[in-house]
From TrEMBL:
Enzyme class name: transferase
Keyword Transferase part of the UniProt annotation: yes
Annotated EC: 2.4.1.-
An annotated Gene Ontology molecular function: quercetin 3-O-glucosyltransferase activity
Species whose genome carries this gene: Quercus rubra
Stated name of the protein: Glycosyltransferase
Family the entry assigns: Belongs to the UDP-glycosyltransferase family.
Keywords on record: Glycosyltransferase, Transferase
Amino acid sequence: MERETHILVITYPLQGHINPMLQFSKRLASKGARVTLVTTSTIRNSMQALQGASSVNIEIISDGSEGDENLENLIATLDRFKVIVSQSLAEYIEKLDSSNYPPKFVVYDFVLPWALDVAKKYGLDGAPFFTQSCAVSVIYYHLKQGTIRLPIEGPTVSLPSLPKLTIDDISSFLSNPSSYPPLLNLALDLFSNFLEAKWLFFSSFMDLELEVVNWMASQQWPIKTIGPTIPSMYLDKRLENDKEYGLHLFKPDVDACIKWLDTKETHSVVYTSFGSLASLGEEQMQELTWGLKNSSCYFLWIVRETEQKKLPTNFLQETAGKGLVVSWCPQLEVLAHKAIGCFMTHCGWNSTLEALSLGVPMVAMPQWTDQLTNAKFIVDVWKVGVRIKLDERGIATKEEIELCIREVIGGERGKEMRGNSIRWKELAKEAMDEGGSSDKNIEDFVAKLVCS
Ligand code: UDX
């Protein structure tokens, strides 16, 4: 039987990690590799909404849970995860070794650096896949190196190849290290063994983070930018050729969203979403509802089922016609819709890249971790959005929300931001097109692996 170059891609079971790693897997498969995306049993029950993905095999290995665990607890339980999953990964590799498709390489989620040790134990090379920006990764690298001392007190932090950052531009657990120890430990762990990896894959693209990518290369890091990791159909509109999208952990309300958007004028809708993990306080939720309502714009708001109890009574009835609230949507399809005027976002890295790649300007409302740095870049480096200012309580008020929405969707600066967004969209497409910087990196990786 024919033996193909088999690559294992191991992803942490969160939506913001699965999405880019699945898209990367598909790109690897399109270059001729056999690819298995490996995730873990926590999401066994929620993963049923798989659409397509036929070019990639999906494998679930045990993390000790049978699919009934709250996803939001995962980060807090990373240590337990490490013990169990390194064992089940080892067993899976052993099983494959005696099959017709022994693995040749392991690409592992950057939050699972120990996966490299498992790969090496079986004589395999490996490479971490970063689902965060190059800029944020460099900040964590400097943390590990001790160039950044904790707690960060400011007023600004200067690091090579990055703009000056204030405390508001850096993960809050660096200015307040005791606020969330698991994340601080994780950030320190990321760079524990990275130079033993064959490559470093980043879900980003050259033009977007040119200075920082060049700095990494100058340090002899084997970096390969391979993004934006979104399906080609959204970059070049060849919809019929690429119907596959992905692996949803929440059930998207596709028809309701798209049919509703179809009835709205071009650039008239604010799309609002805070990703798969962020949870707003009750008070913040109230301000947001009023801010959206007072903006007088149409809005499509994603409120996950676990968050819906925070919506004010009667809100849905009062805003019927003006707004649509659903628990999950096909985000790429929504962002690509002509009715969308701006994206009010928590600035998760995938949401940021998706908006940039689809030419949608943003209202940035970052919540935690890498999102604060992403917001800094959205506003000051890529110039595709405004950032909501928080009041002395740390709340984004309804007045501020309304002001920012109006500025991006209707104001003069909004037009400028839309123009910049279109430019980023073109550059994103160029990177992924045949012969583009990311496409070449993927091709080069597979070609070298085949020859090795
Ligand atoms: C997290 C972090 O925030 C991010 O910065 C990190 O580096 C990866 O994981 P999350 O908070 O969920 O992820 O946000 P984001 O990175 O934006 O990922 C959310 C994904 O879910 C996006 O790919 C988005 O398209 C998708 N999504 C979101 C939907 O498909 N439908 C929705 O309704 C909302």
